[in-house]
Design a protein that fits this description.
α1 crosses α3 and α10 packs across α11. Helices cover 45% and strands 15% of the residues. β1, α5 and β2 form a beta-alpha-beta unit. It is elongated. It has 13 helices and 12 strands. By secondary structure, it is of the alpha/beta class. The strands form 3 sheets. Strands 2-1-3-4-5-11 form a 6-stranded parallel sheet, sandwiched between helices. Strands 7-6-8-9 form a 4-stranded parallel sheet, sandwiched between helices. A two-stranded antiparallel ribbon has the order 10-12. The chain has 3 domains: 44 residues, Orthogonal Bundle (434 Repressor (Amino-terminal Domain)), CATH 1.10.260.40; 135 residues, Response regulator (Rossmann fold, 3-Layer(aba) Sandwich), CATH 3.40.50.2300; 134 residues, Rossmann fold.
Length: 348
């Protein structure tokens, strides 16, 4: 039979309310009584009910992190740093991968509200307005912090990336190498991808160049990044043409993996025949050849966002409601590796 709080109170010779106060820290308990309660808990092996605590205190000692997918190494790296910081604070972490499904995201939102989570980190879905994703928590004064992406919304703390600045820098680098035929591999229905594509077009236009419509490839959001899947097939179709581009900018490192595989299977040399770039630096150092990419400071962003959230959780609700929101921007860093070079016939 499971040990109850009543059993602990009986063993310690105190009231149930005293045991509850020791467990939840809701009121002062003298050191002598606290020791008696703690000894009784240890002797009986009592495990407090998180559900019961959440119902009574409207707090669960849990933080949630809503992410688009767990399969992308970018978000796996984010989870690792978030979990370390949350655990060090004495809280637990719930990871909620939506797999870019809006209905799944809404069900997670309802579940987390009902579970009385103490706070929420959101790496938002591209297909939904950011305010809509934050609203279920804002309406209940549950602290929420946006982590990653480049979107912000009023009244919400955010730790975000200057995507456009990074992609402009990467595109300018390719133009300086002498590339005039540039393609872009992005994701369908992705606000992030659309923003990066706009930055590419801007730089090419400034250089008097045009990004051909048939050189803009948008893979489905659920496409995997290995041979036989969509990114690979589309890359092989484009790069197998006689009028292929000399450089390919990719939405992220994972997309670039499919492009590199297509180049290999077509017998194209990287970077002699085609230069390939990534974005995020999660896989770039282990590809062949190593990818030129934009390094995202994942650990720094995750630590900053988690720190903001934990500070908000510690605030009183009234203080949180009226606090000025924090928006912290990070810059990606251009990392040049062996996957890029001047196109054949062009000197550096």
């Amino acid at each position: 039979m499971a040990v109850t709080i009543r059993d602990v109170a009986k063993r310690a010779g105190v009231s149930i309310s005293t045991v509850s106060a020791v467990i939840n820290g809701t009121k002062y308990v003298s050191p002598k009584l606290r020791r008696r309660v703690e000894e009784a808990i240890e002797e009986l092996g009592y495990i407090p009910s998180l559900i019961g605590r959440a119902l009574s205190s409207q707090r669960s000692s849990m933080v949630a992190y809503i992410i688009p997918t767990i399969s992308n190494p970018f978000f796996s790296s984010m989870i690792k740093t978030v979990e370390q910081n949350v655990f060090a604070s004495g809280l637990g972490l719930l990871v909620c991968p939506t797999e870019e499904e809006e209905e799944k995201a809404r069900r997670y939102e309802a579940f987390l509200v009902g579970a009385h989570v103490d706070g929420v980190l959101i790496s938002p879905l591209s297909s939904r307005p950011l305010e809509e994703q934050c609203r279920p928590f804002l309406d209940r004064d549950i602290p929420v912090v946006v982590l990653a992406g480049s979107r912000t919304t009023p009244h919400v703390d955010a730790v975000v990336l200057d995507d456009a600045s990074g992609m402009r820098r990467l595109t300018q680098y390719l133009v300086q190498l002498g590339h005039r035929r540039v393609a872009f591999f992005g994701r369908k229905r992705s606000v992030t991808s659309a923003g990066r594509l706009a930055a590419v077009r801007e730089v090419l236009a400034d250089a008097g160049l045009e990004l051909r419509d048939d050189w803009v490839v948008e893979a489905p959001r659920h496409a995997r990044y290995l041979p036989s899947h969509e990114t690979y097939r589309q890359a092989k179709a484009l790069l197998g043409r006689e009028d292929r581009p000399t450089a390919v900018l990719c939405h992220n490192d994972a997309v670039a993996v499919g492009v590199l595989q297509a180049c290999y299977d077509l017998g194209l040399r990287v970077p002699d025949d085609v230069s390939v770039t990534g974005f995020d630096d999660t896989l770039a150092s282990v590809t062949s050849p190593p990818l030129t990419t934009l390094r995202v400071p994942i650990e720094d962003m995750a630590e900053r966002a988690t720190g903001i959230l934990l500070d908000r959780i510690a605030q009183e609700k009234e203080q949180y409601r009226h606090a000025e929101r924090i928006v912290h921007w990070f810059e990606p860093e251009l990392v040049v590796r062996a996957s890029t070079g001047a196109p054949e016939g062009t000197s550096r």
